[in-house]
Amino acid sequence: MTTTSKLYINGEWVATDSTFAVTDPATGAVIGHAADATVAHADAAIEAAHKAFPGWKNTPAHKRSQLLYKWFNLIMAQRDELAAILTGEMGKPLMEAKGEVMNAAGFVQWYAEEAKRVYGETIPHLEPTKRITVLKQPVGVVTAITPWNFPAGMVTRKIAPALAAGCTIVLKPAEQTPLTAVRLVELAEQAGLPAGVINLITTSNPAEVGTLLTTDKRVRKVTFTGSTEVGKLISRNAGETVKRVSLELGGHAPFIVFEDADLKKAVFGLINSKYRNAGQTCICTNRVYVHKSVADEFAKIAAEEVAKFKIGHGLEKETTMGPLIDQDALDKVSAHVEDAVGKGATLLLGGKRHGEQGFFYEPTLLAGVTEEMRIATEETFGPVAPIFTFETEEEVLGRANNSQYGLAAYVYTNDLGRSIRMSEGLEYGIVGVNDPMPANAVQAPFGGWKESGLGREGGHHGIDPFLELKYISTGF
Fold first, then answer.
1. Catalytic residue of the set 282, 284, 362, 451
2. pLDDT digits (tens, 9 = 90+) for 182-213
3. Is 447 domain-assigned?
4. What are the CA-CA distances from residue 262 to residues 329, 423, 434 (Å)?
5. Domain count, the chain
6. Contact 144, 457 (CB under 8 A)
7. pLDDT at 4 over 90
8. How many CB atoms lie within 10 A of CB 117?
9. Which CATH number covers residue 189?
10. 13-34 in b/e burial notation, b at 16+ Cβ within 10 A?
């Protein structure tokens, strides 16, 4: 791992007067130090991106594509190293980290191709002596603010389409997990990306630095993944200068199991959706709705399978679930479980901190959960699956949609008609029908409805937010 990282501004690695520690959430040990940027550093990074934009914008698409492919190949060559860094600073099991790095590389590869497919159009004019042309051109300087739970995947999912479109970037990764981003930018530099095209700011003061990154007039677009609360603040900041904004925010995913579902497959799906990354994903299950007639059997199978988990350091081969990211996360999960049990929920499994070291929490299963409990409406972001029961399709659809969030939802049924009714009726941007991991594909549009965000990332849709339309009318 990098012992002490630097900022990357205008093609140069810049040291700062101070640094901040990066710790392993499984042990609490310091594993590195990151440069602590000030507002002045952020201003310099924006200026570098602003000055680099005309040259990058006018770089032919096939040349931008070639550079992205070089970056992709370097990521693939260093994927094991990147996964180890990621596990060290974030805590997820190494196999999960390797999967994330592969997914991150996939975004770079995908947009290396999409760079060559930014097409305009011609539109017939009503006047015979006029012609209409529509061009797609890059927005300009983009600031990308990424979260700690996917330190590689969220970086490339934002940077790759921006670069493909011809935009320049200022990246600010989460202060908990900056080292993965540093290594990715080092590889981008090795790939030959011109100075100023990518700039990296790491900081322990995200509020002050982030305010500049989201209000400066030179910045024309902000792309953010994180909490709904912060997303709303960013949207307000960006609105002062009418910047484009892409927001991938919180979720509260329902996981619906009908009486005709294959219960073993449904439990397997719940495990993959709920407990991956110790429940620290924005699309992970938050509410498990099981038909009353099969709820007891489902809970029994789930408890048997979840009890097999091996909690430990992500670098240990047998580990299937790692730690939470920090003390705040641990406190929130504990509070949700205590509130639910205190209001009558039944604790089937887990329900307490695991061990004395690190931020581990036992994989937990609750039954008899009701709507007045905090866990029914608040995003837990931890390894707790609360089971509710229902009786009719109409009832569960209404309860599932009764949320401010609308990111992901899951349905398990073997009834084709029901699967169509539910997938079309659920007010969510992503629906997995008998599929616990619908968002793994780089080729599909990822994003939410309601307070879960604005815009889409991934697929050919993911480059559009970085492009402006220009309509040209030519008379002759």
1. 282
2. 999 999 999 999 999 999 999 999 999 999 99
3. no
4. 33, 18, 9
5. 2
6. no
7. no
8. 12
9. 3.40.605.10
10. ebebeebbebbbbbeeeebbbb
Q: Is 167 a catalytic residue?
A: no
Q: Are residues 319 and 459 in the same domain?
A: no
Convert the pLDDT of each residue in 296-348 to its tens digit: 999 999 999 999 999 999 999 999 999 999 999 999 999 999 999 999 999 99
What pLDDT does 452 receive? 97
Q: For residue 261, is it within any domain?
A: yes
- Helix (H) and strand (E) counts for the chain? 13, 22
Distance separating alpha carbons of residues 258 and 265, to the nearest angstrom? 12
Q: Closest by alpha carbon to 280, among 200, 379, 197, 198?
A: 379
Q: Which of 47, 100, 114, 248 is catalytic?
A: 248
- Residue 30 pairs in a beta bridge with 23
| Length reported for the chain | 476
Query: Which residues have C-beta within 8 Å of that of residue 288, sequence separation ≥ 6?
Result: 254, 255, 257, 270, 274, 385, 386, 387, 388
Residue 339's closest CA among 297, 395, 386? Answer: 386
458 shares a domain with 396: no
297 is catalytic: no
Cα-trace Rg, the chain: 23
Domain around 109 = 7-249+452-475
Residues 406 and 366 in one domain: yes
